[in-house]
Specification:
By secondary structure, this protein is mostly helical. About 85% of the residues lie in helices and about 0% in strands. It is a multi-pass membrane protein.
Length: about 80
């Protein structure tokens, strides 16, 4: 039952990240989806994959996306 709930959370957060107009919110939702997937891998008894998923998809990718959004924002100067 927990696996199904986690899969629903992953799908919903991925869809919300796709339709989000604000790119920073999309980066946060991408990290949320990656974190939920890491928990799913841990529940499925794959701790090595869960650790990699948590590091890469829940931390590194959202940080890089947020930095890219911050660097490319237009200024009205």
């Amino acid at each position: 039952m927990l696996e199904i709930i986690l899969m629903i959370i992953i799908i919903i957060s991925a869809i919300l990240a796709l339709v989000q107009k604000d790119l920073l919110k999309a980066a946060i939702l991408t990290g949320f989806s990656g974190g939920a997937m890491a928990v799913l891998f841990q529940v499925l008894l794959a701790p090595d994959v869960a650790l990699t998923q948590a590091i890469v998809c829940a931390v590194i990718i959202p940080v890089f996306l947020a930095l890219a959004v911050k660097k490319t924002q237009r200024s009205d100067a």
